[in-house]
Design a protein that fits this description.
2 helices, elongated, mainly beta, Jelly Rolls, 5-stranded antiparallel sheet
Length: 247
């Protein structure tokens, strides 16, 4: 049995969300081996508003003229946070922030927009409208969005992929994969996500000769999470001989 502690800061190459670790000396097993995730630590640093998602811009109309495009700083926002950020940016761009009020409707899971004094909010640029659950259009009348709020950008879980996984023993979304562990973030943005697996689930390795290992992280649809703010990821894994008990 071998305990592997992998840290993206000590990677051979790659990024924190997709890194490779080389082993010197190489790891050798006499027979097929099994691998399991023992623990994982990473920061909940994935922003839901960013230039990469094209959902960080808007314009407002003050009753007389339209503003230029305004950029919301990259970050992880709740609807209340977005309301405050948008109001602050409207004020700093010469408007009256309190004339645009965005609130979460916890009964319908939608967002409400209240407009005052002939103000309008342009959600036709970018994809901020998807986050708020509104049409891609200029909002000129107060009301409620017609779709559910998508504050997580439709990300419900993270998948940990490992290059050592025998794809015939791991299935994701109906297809063979190299997913070794999956979980849903259970802490607010900016907090440490710490997972320790008590009942280890061992998966067959695709080789008994190991010179390196690639770890990468995706969402539940296998989209690579490239925007983790370059925060460090630490993962502990166990490789063992299959002749030993798996639990």
């Amino acid at each position: 049995m071998i305990l592997l502690t992998l840290n993206s800061d000590n990677r051979s190459n790659g990024f924190s969300y997709d890194f490779t670790t080389s082993f010197q000396p190489n790891l050798r097993f006499d027979d097929d081996c099994l691998i399991a995730v023992h623990s994982l630590q990473m920061w909940n640093s994935l922003p839901n508003i960013s230039v990469g998602r094209n959902n960080n811009t808007f314009r407002f109309y003050n009753g007389a003229t339209w503003s230029s495009n305004i950029t919301i700083p990259t970050g992880n926002y709740s609807i209340d946070d977005l309301n405050l950020a948008i109001q602050t940016l409207i004020t700093s761009n010469g408007g009256v922030g309190s004339n645009v009020v965005i609130t979460p409707n916890y009964n319908t899971l939608k967002s409400d927009i209240l407009l005052k004094n002939s103000y309008r909010l342009d959600l036709s640029i970018g994809t901020l409208y998807l986050v708020l659950g509104w049409p891609q259009a200029i909002v000129s009348v107060s009301g409620s969005g017609n779709e559910l709020v998508d504050i997580s950008n439709n990300i419900t879980s993270y998948q940990i992929h490992c290059s050592l996984v025998d794809s015939s023993t791991s299935i994701s979304n109906g297809s063979s994969s190299d997913v070794i562990y999956s979980f849903s973030p259970d802490k607010p943005a900016g907090n440490l996500l710490s997972k320790e697996i008590i009942n280890l689930i061992y998966i067959k390795c695709n080789s008994n000769y190991i010179s390196s290992m690639r770890i990468y992280i995706t969402d539940q649809k296998s989209n690579l999470l490239t925007d983790l703010s370059n925060e460090n990821i630490s993962i502990t894994m166990i490789i063992k001989d299959p002749s030993l008990p798996t639990r």
